[in-house]
Amino acid sequence: MTQHSESPSDVAAFHAAYDHLKPALPGAGWLRELRHVAMTRFLSLGLPGRRAEQWRYADLGPLRKGSFSPVTLAQETEQARIDAAAVPGLDAPRLVFINGRFQRALSRMEGLPADLAPQSLREVLITGGGSLRDLITDLRDGDAFDQLNTAMMSEGVVIDVPKGLKVETPVEIVYLVDDADDRAAHLRVVVRLGEGASLKLIESFKGDDSRFFTNLITQTTIADDAHLTLIRRQNEGAETVHISRIYATLGRGALAVHHLATGGQSARHELRADFTTEGGDVRYQGIQLARPHQTLDTLTFLDHAVPNCTSDQAYRGVLAAQAVASFQGKVLVRRDAQKTDAKQKSDSLLLDRSATSNAKPELEIYADDVQCAHGSTVGELSTDQLFYLMARGLSPLEAKAMLVEAFIAALCDGVPDEAARNAFIETARGWLQNLDIHDLALKEAS
Amino acid sequence: MTHLLNIENLHVAIQGEEILKGLNLKIKAGEVHAIMGPNGAGKSTLASTLAGRESFEVLEGTVRYQDEDLLALDAHERAAKGIFLGFQYPTEIPGVSNLNFLRTALNAQRRQRGEAEMDGGTFMKLAREKAQNLGISIEMLKRFVNVGFSGGEKKRNEMMQMAVLNPTLAILDETDSGLDIDALKVVSDGINALRSADKAILLITHYQRLLDYVTPDHVHVLADGKIVRSGGPELAHELEEKGYQAVA
Ligand SMILES: Nc1ncnc2c1ncn2[C@@H]1O[C@H](COP(=O)(O)OP(=O)(O)O)[C@@H](O)[C@H]1O
Ligand SMILES: [Mg+2]
Predict the structure, then answer these.
(1) How confident is the model at residue A132 (pLDDT cuts 50, 70, 90)?
(2) What is the distance between the alpha carbons of residues B74 and A46, in angstroms, rounded to a whole number?
(3) What is the pLDDT of residues A335-376, one digit of tens each?
(4) In chain B, how long is the greatest CA-to-CA distance?
């Protein structure tokens, strides 16, 4: 018997994959030790169960059943498939990952400013030495997926935007899954903005119907007067399990996240932001479109630890028949965080009564001079609006599609890049077109 | 000549309650008919039933339109065949611009009729022209459908839609209510512009006022779910003077 025989059975497959891969994982010395500690913690934590408050609405079933080992071989993917996964019409430098592996040859760096040089995380881990401790955030106190990611991370990208550099062009990252059943990608993306720097990252996740597991942590630090915009379109394949986390630490800077999630069999999206200096600002706009029998889950946690910071979160979910979509938004305003202004609004639209929407705003406020507002609604399509559109010639499906598009229009309009904005709208239209009238079934209330 | 619309013995229930109780009405192409009647008589119920509101249950009777069973068609199919309902209370649709809505509707109808879709440029030209006639600004066309519109603006917007969609049978449900005299003039001009030998208009109104601008060929009184009297334009004046009670 090995020393790990007592670990929960649902992590055994991950443990085996780790043991198998260990010699090939990039990095030595300190990093190797870090991985070992993380794996040990992962094994003792096990995958979170439904009783864990933060995982009540997620579906980790496929992870318990499956066995996912990281990809070691490069997949030969046609350029056309990568282009199809990217944001149409976006003329920007592009980093490409296929099945979790960085593809330098398929990426294009032209158009980047001279002093912006994204690096492959794998290469940095191998050559990094002592500076790695600054690079890799210690997630020792994190949950099982933090540990798993730390133990297994082998690919990713490091983007350092030097002080004062305002990157004019957006930078695109494409994560494509191609013919990779029972594989996993444990990715770590590090984005660091120096004082007064700015960057707009546009990310697309797309894949075929592989049974795949995407496990991404994006860690970012945003210095004073810096501004990071992160536009993310998660449209992975129908058999993929997706877990992605954004961990942001802000100085007196700003973070804007624009998120559209429709992909995966089960997908979980997290944003955690820590305010460390007065004047920080976080804007989050998230859309989830859940098709039948899919589970989509978003969790945000904004930690207002210092005074005079602002946050504004807007979430919209659209749920087809039998879908589950959830939004848990936590705002913590600590004792010292006077003059905090934190807004949160979540609205969900059920296309059928068999869908399940969970929306849980959670405000924990310990300061007394603050402005915090939150609201949450769940509704159905209006029969009056449907009749109005149909009386003008739209079929029931066209009418419903128009109203769904209208429901998320404000959040799409908020995307601060024209090509990405159009990609959001087109992705939503594609989602609608894949539904049939039964998924949208809604008897007119009479 | 056969009738464009022929309603016979129509009984309609809303939530199990019978609202229309054996209504008969025949309209020929080229004609303008006015229906007047007290509040709650069933005028809007008739209009919505003709437009295809699903939750209104037809208990009995037939409606033939262009020699076809109208009741067998869905609302959008009726629209494509030229039926237009000007709503008494136009619906607000946040997130959808008037222009997008109009173009989508027009092309949805054209597709159903097997016609080519209208391209953006041609559509904009058409929309601009119709808007100008109705005193509607391009600014207003870019706004969300009826959102934040005054009562009068909503009615004018209905006329705008009618002008662009160019229906064969326009059913206008109290399009004149809540309009000041200038707006009433604009709306009447819009209605008169639609009048032609192959089209018909059914005006539902509360007041004689509109009929001073749009002279109807026939006037009907609807009370308690039935047409209780029919006549020429003079009937409207009689109603105005004596009230529904005396006339019906
Ligand atoms: N959506 C509805 N639900 C329930 N009852 C309705 C509805 N619409 C109309 N009614 C009822 O039907 C009757 C006729 O209404 P309506 O057709 O609007 O009258 P009118 O337009 O002549 O004033 C009224 O008693 C009204 O309360
Ligand atoms: Mg009425």
Answers:
(1) confident
(2) 55
(3) 999 999 999 999 999 999 999 999 988 999 999 999 999 999
(4) 55
Q: How far apart are CA A316 and CA A405, in angstroms?
A: 11
Helices (H) and strands (E) in chain B, counts: 8, 12
Say if A179 is an interface residue toward chain B (CB within 8 Å).
no
Vertex A426: Cα angle to A417 and B157 (nearest 5) = 90
* Segment A290-335, tens digit of pLDDT: 999 999 999 999 999 999 999 999 999 999 999 999 999 999 999 9
Please tell us whether the domain made up of B5-247 is placed in CATH 3.40.50.300: yes
Mean pLDDT, residues A415-432: 96
| A99 closest CA partner among A122, A69, A79 | A69
> Where exactly are the structural domains of chain B?
5-247
Residue A435 is classified by DSSP as S
Decide if A262 contacts A291 (C-beta within 8 A): yes
Tell me the Ramachandran region of residue A202: left when phi exceeds 0, alpha when psi lies from -120 to 50, beta otherwise: beta
Show residues of chain A in contact with B74, CB under 8 Å: 390, 395-396
3 state DSSP class of A197: coil
pLDDT tens digits, one per residue of A429-438: 999 988 876 5
CA pair distance B195, B88, nearest whole angstrom: 21
| Residue A52: per-residue pLDDT | 86
Interface probe, candidates A318, A347, A383, A390, chain B, greatest B C-beta count within 10 A: A390
Prediction pTM value: 0.92
Q: Please, are residues A203 and A235 in contact by the beta-carbon 8 Å criterion?
A: no
Give B90's contacts in chain A (Cβ within 8 Å).
Answer: 388
Query: Does B51 sit within 8 Å of A398, measured CB to CB?
Result: no
Contact present, A103 and A94 (Cβ < 8 Å): no
Segment (H or E) for B93: strand B93-97
Residue-range domain boundaries for chain A? 8-277
